[in-house]
Amino acid sequence: MSELAAWVEGIALIGPGLPGWAAARPVLAGEARLVVAATEVPKLTVLPPAERRRVGPVVRLALATGLAACEAAGADPSTLPTVFCSAGGDGANCHAICETLASDDRLISPIRFHNSVNNAASGYWGIATGAMAPSAIVAAFDGSFAMGLLEALAQLASSLEAGERLLLISHDVPYPAPLNAARPMLDACGIGLVLARHRTDRAVARLVAHLTDNAAPGTLAEPLESIRLGTPTGRALPLMRALAIGAGGDCVLEIHESLSLSVTAVPT
To answer: Is the pTM of this model over 0.70?
Structure first.
């Protein structure tokens, strides 16, 4: 595959002890110490009250992450095409459905059903922002962020409109017991990137990526390495570190055991 490239205009990160990009950047750059704490998913006011009552942490995390990235880029969220990537979607909702199916009353509520699909976050994003632009959904286990980034870069490369931008949102929340025994996750983590096909005054870095068979991603210092390995979205932390340092750098984001995405972050 030939190289794919895009300009980064907005960055968002919400994770354990990382309550936003402003707090995460110095930690990733090695300028501050990470104090690990439970991920705080911001409260949302962009959804109507009825929808706010229906959504769980997965959707709240996805929307908060995407909105933060758009704010950082000075972008109107209603205008951007989106790529949502999540390794497992809404595990709490899946758990509730399984409980219902295992009970005497096996009727699934329509709300539970429509929240169970992997594009639920995309649907609520449209309700919250009024977005009518295309939206893609990616799920690839621990390689979900890498595949989501590949999808976003491919979409930008095929765009016919100069200056087109796109929003990438990666979001994962741990499953409840007993599902978490089969698929353990450390904590919730969300990453958002506003990407542009061409350079603008908002650009903070350029990403250049290509597929590789090198499946040995670089490690991070603890406790960031535990977050990287403990959350599917956290697999993107080497790239976020390169963006935080601001001096450029290479990283390898593993898709599976024999395929990875090599990404170079070039500062502006």
So the answer is: yes
